[in-house]
Amino acid sequence: MMRREWEVIVVGAGPGGSTAAARLAAEGVEVLLVDKERFPREKPCSDIYGPFGARTYEELGVYERLLEAGYRYPSVVLTSPDYTAISGPNHKGLTCPRRIGDNILKENAARLGAEVWEECWVHDLVVEDGRVRGVKAKYQGEFLELRSKIVIGADGSHSWVAKRLGLFRDDYEQVYLAGRAYFKGCNPPLRDVEVHYDPGFTPGFVCLSPHPGYGDVVNMGVGIQMKLYVDSQLNAEEMVARFVAESPHGEKMRGATQVSRWMGWRVPSAGQIGRNHAAGALLVGDAGSFVEPFILEGVASAVRSANYAARTALEALRDGDFSEESMARYAEKWEAKMLPQLRALQGIAVTAADPKALNRTFQALKEDPEAVSRVFGG
Ligand SMILES: Cc1cc2nc3c(=O)[nH]c(=O)nc-3n(C[C@H](O)[C@H](O)[C@H](O)COP(=O)(O)OP(=O)(O)OC[C@H]3O[C@@H](n4cnc5c(N)ncnc54)[C@H](O)[C@@H]3O)c2cc1C
Description:
Blueprint: E1 8-11, H1 15-26, E2 31-34, E3 48-49, H2 54-59, H3 63-69, E4 75-79, E5 85-89, E6 94-95, H4 98-111, E7 115-117, E8 120-128, E9 131-139, E10 142-147, E11 150-153, H5 160-165, E12 175-184, E13 193-196, E14 205-211, E15 217-225, H6 226-231, H7 236-246, E16 257-258, E17 263-268, E18 277-278, E19 281-283, H8 299-319, H9 324-327, H10 329-337, H11 339-349, H12 355-366, H13 369-376
Parallel strand pairs: 1-2, 1-11, 2-7, 4-13, 11-19
Antiparallel strand pairs: 3-6, 4-5, 8-9, 9-10, 12-15, 12-16, 12-17, 13-14, 14-15, 18-19
Bound molecules: flavin-adenine dinucleotide (FAD).
């Protein structure tokens, strides 16, 4: 007989969901982690597991494994439309294809004791007396009701859990379109992570991230605010082609060959962050719009929000209190620990639509290396 009840159900086994499940399982909580995909699965991304997630990977005993599969780039270089460059050394961030890295994180959650169901599609929540009491899911051809004391929605940018809770936000000034494809033949080979707010590309940016261990392919990605994109005649692929043809930073990609198709996705930035809890439920990562708003790093934010969600869930289980007030302890944690940095990056992001303002921001950051590492990590 298939089990139907856990203390916590986590929906989505990306970095956010796997971290929440791993944290809870490590504390002896009975947790089910479900994902609609079979892993390893693709996730369009520039494949940067940023430095702010590293401590969690270390605590969960998985950092070395990620590093073996990935690449620790020496530094990050960012440039503005007038080619002002800021850069900082990287100590703990790494690149790793998401289909590999996310699988490692999911396997680690299982190793720590989480039960993992893949190809399990959550299509509704169980709500009783105004409190979330589980999920409705399709698994192995059967429609099932799976019950829990808490549901953690980590189901990504199109979060069905957020929609069902009435917490889904879609402000086109705070949501971004991002895409990526892999290229072979970068010359000279790329070693740093590069993010270019290039004049030919304004108001978006191009991100180049290296994969020396995977045939030295380069992940070339783009990010642009959704409102600017849909209001314009811009085409992301054409913009990248122009960057490669015209920018001094695109020169090294001129002889490179595209070796994968372009994949794009919706990126909900923290510019629209709001309530991410309800009675019996918490939202982490993209489901809760935790993506940092400037260079759109969302992996580390998903991991960090998952830490606070797991801690909140542990407190609620200890107290036997799953009310909205109890879940609001989650907001206290992420607002105190994450919001100042997210707001600082939002402050930079709003200047991105105006090249002159962005140049001034970069010039100011260049004078303040401490601010750079506070905001971007190292
Ligand atoms: C092109 C692009 C480049 C990016 N580059 C970077 C980068 O380099 N570094 C960075 O930090 N961030 C980057 N981001 C953002 C980053 O990808 C996300 O912020 C991050 O993946 C969020 O993690 P998550 O765990 O919240 O969600 P996800 O990684 O999206 O995982 C959600 C999981 O939920 C599952 N799921 C969804 N719906 C259901 C359902 N109904 N039932 C069951 N399972 C479900 C999905 O299959 C998925 O596995 C980029 C985004 C894009 C689009």
